[in-house]
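User: Could you check the structure of this?
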Amino acid sequence: MAHRVFIDGEAGTTGLQIRERLAARRDLELTSIDPALRKDVNARRDLLNSADAVILCLPDDAAREAVRLIERDAVKVIDASTAHRTAPGWTYGFPEMTTPPRADIAAARRVSNPGCYPTGFIALVRPLVHAGLAPAAFPFSVNAVSGYTGGGKSMIAEFEDAGAPHYTEARYRIYATGLAHKHVPEMQTHAGLAHAPLFSPAVGRYAQGMIVEVPLPLWALPARPTLADVHGVLAAAYLNEYFIEVASLEEAREVKTLNPEALNGTNTMQLFVFGHDDQARLVARLDNLGKGASGAAVQNLNIMLGLEEAAGLA
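Assistant: Sure, the predicted structure tokens are below.
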């Protein structure tokens, strides 16, 4: 019998991509709300409570409201918003992390889908802290650039709609200059850091795809690891993972540039270790709407429902 799945917010960018990834699945039955009833609380409550699993693709406040509308304990929830990524009682849905293991996601009723920037940062930093190569109190910084779809409707309009209030023809711009980006608590918490990292996000004039970079002065780390040490920890952490690839040091030495759009449409993330034994440049490349959003949600859904983890993601 097919599992009944409701995507609340399926008309948004992430919701549309999740639906596209699930549409051909025979092990799932997708339910939808009449567009005219999207703001009807009772209609939404009925669909939320009649599903086996719900994926929330909503703004933070709307996601919190949707959770309050769910009265049936058996309903499994994946929240793609920022609302619950550090909330008590929610399992962080990053299956490749050292902890929690996949078993925790499989047993969870409430899973928060990771953010796109944090996915790259945590994948690069958490194994180093866990292995003791970098102390939890180290002053990490992270630089990243994403396609404009990562900023939601307002940012999409900024780059696509000439009539939008803040329309721009810029090829590239920085943002979150107040250093209070909503992804920072998530990065700190799930990378296991004592202090918030210094986050410098940017957006380019392309729809999707991203690069996340962590500069690392190896000479400043108490353990004084070599480049090979850093690479070895990352390679070991993701040795048997299907969706995370760690390039060899030899491959990294041949790389002259990285195209942020190269993994678009996939749930794959590639990690690179560039540099030498004094300095490292750790880089993650992923699709901000794939492994950074919709692909990760489908991966978590598969685990929670006891299905093949890669189903719909090949």
